[in-house]
Amino acid sequence: MFDLTGKTALVTGAGQGVGFGIAATLLEAGAKVFVNDLVPERAVAAAEALGSNATALPFSVDDREAVVSAIAGIGPVDILVNNAGIPPTMRPVKFRDMDPAEWAAYIDVNLYGVINCVSATIDEMCERGWGRVITISSGAGTQGLNIGVSMYGAGKGGAISFMRHLAVETARSGVTANTLALGLMERDAPNVTEESRTVTASMAKQVPVGRLGTGRDIGYTCVFLASDEAEWITGQTIAVNGGSVTT
Q: Is 54 helix (H, G, I), strand (E, B) or coil?
């Protein structure tokens, strides 16, 4: 079950964190994986760490021309995981305190980034009669949070709506489209401070299962949704959050 041998996957934002975990899990299930990252050196390092069935494919998802050019050069993509979603300028700030010049970065990555990558892969999926599109969203896209992520939530919420419509449009072509709404996740931290450990421990206590999520947790769900066994699941937004309450 859940054998992805012979499938080609593209995971955006896979140079680190959740995306790296997703890429690693897809590889273990048998897929060949293209590792995308905004930073070329990070994409290369991640692909080297993942092994011979992983290939670096650096580009910025919000640059449509770069997306189309890069994907055109790798052949058909069977599994697209839209994971890229945190702009380099991201910071917690409430909407009323945000400079309008900051708005676009969140929408460009989280909505247009998803649309760009889908546009570059969906036609071939439909023509072949098989494809999987999985978008990594967030609880910030499904409920209101008072932690300064309003524009991030706007981008994530927009992508959720887009995926629901895409699912209906492509269902008869053998292509599924689903979204994962993540809860509190572990983040890469090369220089972890004692203060960071304290904050992380406090956050983990809020999660019913008692810990933060990992890239592997998300990767296992992606493997299932990418499999033949999940062909009757499409248009869904699935909360992967350790039991946290969502609305």
A: strand
Interatomic CA distance for residues 123 and 223, integer angstroms: 22
Tens digit of each residue's pLDDT (9 = 90 or more) over 63-78? 999 999 999 999 999 9
Q: Which of 241, 223, 36, 19 lies closest to 140, judged by CA?
A: 241
Query: What's the Cα-to-Cα distance from 10 to each of 86, 92, 121, 203, rounded to whole Å?
Result: 18, 29, 10, 31
> pLDDT digit string (tens) for 212-244?
999 999 999 999 999 999 999 999 999 999 998
Which among 106, 112, 152, 220 is annotated as catalytic? Answer: 152
Q: What are the structural domains of the chain?
A: 8-240 (3.40.50.720)
Separation CA 183–CA 207 (nearest Å):
9
Tokens in use for 171?
């269902």
Q: How far apart are CA 212 and CA 217, in angstroms?
A: 10
Best CA proximity match to 120, nearest among 177, 185, 72:
72
Full-model pTM: 0.95
220 tagged catalytic: no
